[in-house]
């Protein structure tokens, strides 16, 4: 048993999971399959042994992206959640963790497909005018249907039409 418990889930909250112990091999994968599956430039992943992993709400849908790999996602909201490479562990997407700041990627893989300008991303100019003003943030919060970054007893907490 480990003291470290990490929880996470999809945006709508239909699928929630728990991982016990330190996540292994936190990395960014730049392969083309991960790009597509994430709808992003890379997929941030880290592994947990199957016996230290469990779903705490719902079931993911799976897409078999190749012979030995299937990718789990929420079929209600589409959030990419899992990578199952038919081994002794399952990988979770690091952005789906309730505390994504807590796991720092240590490696990257499949650099051949890495965006050529990836290293420039952090130097993009900040368009402060497009930041959300506090009053707008309140409006968004009032209609927010994203599951909070912690487990809940009941979800959705109210039915939305
Ligand atoms: Zn969902
Ligand atoms: Zn990949």
Provide the fold topology.
Blueprint: E1 5-9, E2 16-20, E3 24-29, H1 32-38, E4 43-49, E5 53-57, E6 61-66, E7 69-73, E8 80-84, E9 89-93, E10 107-109, H2 134-142
Parallel strand pairs: 3-10
Antiparallel strand pairs: 1-2, 2-5, 3-4, 4-9, 6-7, 7-8, 8-9
The structure holds zinc ion (2 copies).
GO molecular function, one term: metal ion binding
Pfam families: GFA
Domain CENP-V/GFA: 6-116
CATH level 1 class label: Mainly Beta
Architecture, CATH level 2?
Beta Complex
Count of alpha/pi helices: 2
Query: Structural class, from secondary structure content?
Result: mainly beta
* Spans where pLDDT lies below 50 across 5 or more residues: none
Largest sheet, order of strands side by side? 6-7-8-9-4-3-10
Bound molecules: zinc ion
Shape: globular
Q: Based on DSSP secondary structure assignment, what is the total number of beta strands?
A: 10
CATH topology: Metal Binding Protein, Guanine Nucleotide Exchange Factor, Chain A
GO molecular function, one term: carbon-sulfur lyase activity
InterPro entries: CENP-V/GFA, Mss4-like_sf
Family: Belongs to the Gfa family.
Domain CENP-V/GFA: 6-116
């Amino acid at each position: 048993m480990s003291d470290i418990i990490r929880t996470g889930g999809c945006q709508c909250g239909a699928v929630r999971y728990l991982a016990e112990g330190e996540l292994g091999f936190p990395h960014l994968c730049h392969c083309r399959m991960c790009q597509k599956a994430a709808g992003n430039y890379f997929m941030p992943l880290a592994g947990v042994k199957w016996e230290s992993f469990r779903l705490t709400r719902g079931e993911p849908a799976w897409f078999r992206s190749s012979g030995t790999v299937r990718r789990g996602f929420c079929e209600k909201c589409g959030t990419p959640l899992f990578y199952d490479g038919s081994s002794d562990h399952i990988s979770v997407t690091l952005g789906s963790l309730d505390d994504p700041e807590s796991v720092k990627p240590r490696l990257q893989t499949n650099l051949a497909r890495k965006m050529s300008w990836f290293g420039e991303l952090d130097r993009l100019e900040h368009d402060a005018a497009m930041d959300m003003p506090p009053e707008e943030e309140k409006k968004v919060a009032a209609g927010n249907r994203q599951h909070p970054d912690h487990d809940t007893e009941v979800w959705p907490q109210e039915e939305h039409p």
